[in-house]
Automatic annotation (TrEMBL):
Protein name: ABC-2 type transport system ATP-binding protein
Keyword set, alphabetical order: ATP-binding, Nucleotide-binding, Transport
SMART domains with a match to the protein in the record: AAA
InterPro entries named in the record: AAA+_ATPase, ABC_transporter-like_ATP-bd, P-loop_NTPase
Top-rank taxon, per record: Bacteria
Domain ABC transporter: residue ranges: 2-227
Gene3D superfamilies reported for this sequence: P-loop containing nucleotide triphosphate hydrolases
PROSITE patterns, sorted: ABC_TRANSPORTER_2
Species whose genome carries this gene: Streptomyces rishiriensis
Amino acid sequence: MIDARQLTKKYGEKTAVDGLDFVVQPGTVTGFLGPNGAGKSTTMRMIVGLDAPTSGSVTVNGHRYARHQAPLQEVGALLEAKSIHPGRSAYNHLRALALTHGIPGRRVDEVIDLAGLGSVAKKRAGAFSLGMGQRLGIAAALLGDPQTVMLDEPVNGLDPEGVLWIRNLLKTLAVEGRTVFVSSHLMSEMALVADHLIIVGRGRLLADTTVADLIREAGGDTVNVATQDPARLRDVLAGPGVEVTGRIGSEELQVTGLTTREIGLKAAEHGIALFGLSARTVSLEEAFMDLTRDAVEYHGSTPGIETLGRPA
Ligand SMILES: Nc1ncnc2c1ncn2[C@@H]1O[C@H](COP(=O)(O)OP(=O)(O)OP(=O)(O)O)[C@@H](O)[C@H]1O
């Protein structure tokens, strides 16, 4: 479990992380999301003691990282690309890391296999592609078989096969009961792997929610339905957890709490003809942009093109 309390980091005048309170639970993948410059990397650096908080605190399993007796066995982290001696092989790099942390040598072979580095493990790391380097960083993070795994933008530089590998790996680590904390600025990627989301903007907490709730709050579970007799359909659909709205005089209704299939079947049961039935699709990317709109540090601009089809 990772527990941040009023976690704050200032660099001179700049407040990179601003009073963050959150808990990352074991057994699920938690996505750490926010636009560029939101403070994700700074937060992760503080979790593993690479940066000291200006105020507040963050602990892993109840202790500050520096207080752990065998930190590599407690938290495995992939932060910005590690500098590895270019002449050293992946195998020797991991072996040296294992030796200095009291990790048995056979674990090096295990993580090399796990990261799919078997065929290149004895080659110079200097000749590695970005994706291979990323896999090596993940192998190093898992070397101590840690209970908590924290990865900063792990899919960076990976090809589609690598991206799929990361998704499966993260899910497996969570199923094993580990705490898995993964940052990204890509909502679409997080939607595929994360169950829980911590969203930040300008160093502040914007949301601590599940993927399902985020979609619901953005109106993503609304169904539009059209019929000649909306009043009757409204009565037929009424029930616990169901909300039906619609403008007076309009044949269209907006329904939450029922799927298109359930609405279609109920209407058929009562002989009500429908001439429109569609789920409103709100992309997670759109929900994320809405949430972080005011928290984006670096706005790009493309003259003549509106952001996500909305008025600028
Ligand atoms: N060492 C530093 N000195 C001064 N400012 C810093 C330092 N490190 C980070 N910052 C600033 O703090 C803010 C948060 O940066 P951080 O790298 O944590 O964000 P991020 O969410 O990880 O962004 P990205 O998605 O671009 O990696 C930024 O405005 C950044 O410029």
